[in-house]
Design goal:
The structure holds 2 protein chains of 2 kinds. By secondary structure, chain A is mainly alpha-helical. Helices cover about 65% and strands about 0% of the residues of chain A. Chain A is built from 6 helices and no strands. In chain A, α1 packs parallel to α4 (about 75-85). Chain B is an alpha+beta fold. In chain B, β2 (about 45-55) and β3 form a beta hairpin. Helices cover about 30% and strands about 30% of the residues of chain B. In chain B, strands 3-2-1-4-6-5-7-8 form an 8-stranded mixed β-sheet. Chain B has helices at about 10-25, 75-85, 105-110, 160-165, 170-175, 185-195, and strands at about 35-45, 45-55, 55-60, 70-75, 115-125, 130-135, 150-155, 180-185. Classes of the chains: A mainly alpha, B alpha+beta.
Chain lengths: ~110, ~200
Amino acid sequence: MRPLAFSVASAATLALASLTQGGCQRKPSAEECGQMLDRYVDMTAGQDPAFNGLSEERAVLLRAVKRSQKRLEASYTQALGQCQREVSRDELECAMKAPTPNDWEACID
Amino acid sequence: MFPIEVPPGTTLESLFLDVLPKAHAQMVPPDAGGRFVAVQEVRGFATYTLDIRGNVLTVTEGAADKPDFWMTVAEAHAQLFLDDWMGPKKLAPKTFPKELVAISDPRILKRLAMVSAKAELALVDLDGERVGLVAASGAAAKKAIDEDAPDVVLEATAATFVRLVEGTLPPEDAIADGAVTVRGKKLLAMQYALAFAPFYPRR
């Protein structure tokens, strides 16, 4: 997998570019897309050594920090817009249930 | 900062070349692996390279290229700290936590190095003066020392500093409740604070 710094952009920009639309299902909202991207960020953050040794309470705090930092990146905004335009509801639901970052990426490949 | 005994007559030179290496060896366990290089600039005085390998800290004059960390402080401000340690001890904790971990411990440095940032740390009320230093870590430390335009500025009173060192105020709580005020990128400040969390005394 690509490094976290580029992961949202890579997963949600490169993969989404090849998507076909999912019929007439309602498109994901900005909030739903945000949750989907946050899930990816959370899962990849779990592999970050900065979390080693932290209590669950502190890990929750650091996850929130990492998520907020990611939201400030241009790649996140780009991925959010692309998600709203190109991700189907089935893909969104698949990504929201994915247990690993690889599975998440597979949902939208 | 080290909560250390500073012998009378210590100068800035002997602090870096003698006192700090001894304190490091005393406080860091031999199995604390890892190597880190830090450059300490005391503006108007000297620049030192601190080469940390486990519990061995070697200090040489001059600046290593592309260190893991750099810090810059005005000579007058460094002297204020030193004078306090040898004198009134306003910045010295009254008690130390049982599981005290030195800030130069490679286990902490490893976590701090994951944060790429330039930060200004300041005490706002030391003898009526604002006293501070600028430090960089991670990728940001690979750039030349430059005290201007830090990503984040953290300010606290001397009393808050002592609570942090005593182990009675976790850094992340100090930021969250405003005891440490943050300007600039608050998220970086929180990352720094959480870098200490696994080694901070449990309450």
